[in-house]
Amino acid sequence: MAPEHDSALQKIRDEFQRFPLAVPTHTGQHRPMIPGESSALLAHALVYLCESVKCDRAAVFLLDEATQTLQAQELINHGEVMAGEEEIAILPQTPLSQLVEGKRDHLLAHGDLSTAYLPLRAFGKVFGVLRVERSKGWGVETIPLLKAFAHELAAVLRGLEIAASERRQVSNMQALHEVSNAIFRSLRLEEMLESVAQSLIHQMGFDRAKIYLLNKEGDTLEGVLTMDQRGKQMLDRERFPLKRGVPPMVDIILGRSVDERLEKYRRTIAYIPLRARDENMGILMVDNLLSQQEIPEEQIPLLEAIAGQLSMAIKNARLFQGVEELSITDGLTGLYILRYFKQRLKEELYRAERTHGQLSLMILDIDHFKRFNDTYGHPAGDTILATVAERVLANARKVDLPARYGGDEFFILLPDTSPDEAHLLAERLHQAVANEPIALPDGKVLKLTVSIGIATYPTHAASIDELIKRADEALYWIKSHGRNRIRLYSTEIPEKI
Predict the structure, then answer these.
(1) Mean pLDDT for each 10-residue chunk of the chain (497 residues)?
(2) How far apart are CA 237 and CA 142, in angstroms?
(3) Domains, the chain, ranges and CATH?
(4) What is the pLDDT of residue 240?
């Protein structure tokens, strides 16, 4: 090789050395075969090459084995760096295919510009091609420099790829560790799912994470949580029966192949089944539909490992939830017991104080319950209590807290609820009980009514004891005025009791 070419090659080698192999990558982002930091390296290297051999254009192509095409990565045109958009098909039994197969060490083509193709080879395999063009043609003395340059470039690019792969492995292990910690951070199902979804987005870089779980009966898949880069968003309680022909999550649960129409989303969305000891729990879904970044293949086994841990954690959380519910709910009605209710009442009153909000309390009493109990017996009384409790639960909001106070009285705590709003909710509950008769075990049918007293913090009371007392006074006023009514506390009530 001519001395000036030796000098040019050394200059290019020195330029390569300016690019460290330990540049950090962003967790979860799309990574091509050659890492992103190679773009600057390619641009500099190609500029130096063109200056050294006086070429007009130079470009680096990477081989896409699936499509048997060469995809342009970086292009230098008369000293200007341009984005590579060109694609070259590799036809069988052509000089270019022989170059890619390693049967040639270079290829020359003549036209308006004389073009030289050099293979980019590492570990005995060609993974790309360097193309260099100039108007005055290529002399035999220049080919060794181009070969040496292609060899140096291939070695550095592969070095970058290996370094990036090692960093991705470390990053994936760190992500797995963080998500695992999130899984076992809480035994409460909702807290645990929220923490896991947050970790999947922040640690692995997904646009969005969704979790679907099978209901207790095992016949419906329900969306329980979705989270995106902006934070938590609850689903609109998506529900899908376990029947073929509905969303792909159901087909996965049923062990069937996913609809071919979803193939176009395959690289930006992933459905991972949640199974614990062969028991279907639900589906974990992650996607990059907004950013359109491909989900790397190497992340799928990682997601499957996370799904395995998550499935067992969901099973344990549900067991814990069942035990916890047994300890804080009334066995007959399924409503919260008074001890737990009072604890939550303290928490909600403190929150209302802190946020300057409102907190309403209903006390519901079944009219003439003792008479029904004495007339029809205790089994009938239990049926009445359980049925009224069902209607309380069916008409309460998710944020409301219904409890059995004792006997035939029920407390319903209404956070962030004004007196007027509480009165509307009470009317709905009052009608739900009165409008539909109750069937007793012996076949008899009874029509029931209820009385409901209401008080609101801070409008009517300044403390927990006062809130309960005011609601009770409103209820007592109803009992002394014929029952089957709703009454909001007012200052005139004590005077008329």
Answers:
(1) 60 58 37 48 78 86 89 83 81 91 89 86 88 86 85 81 68 68 69 80 83 80 82 68 69 61 65 82 85 81 82 73 60 83 89 92 93 89 90 89 87 93 94 90 89 94 94 92 92 66
(2) 69
(3) 3-167 (3.30.450.40), 184-324 (3.30.450.40), 338-496 (3.30.70.270)
(4) 79
Distance CA 122, CA 305 (A): 33
Strand partners, 366: 450
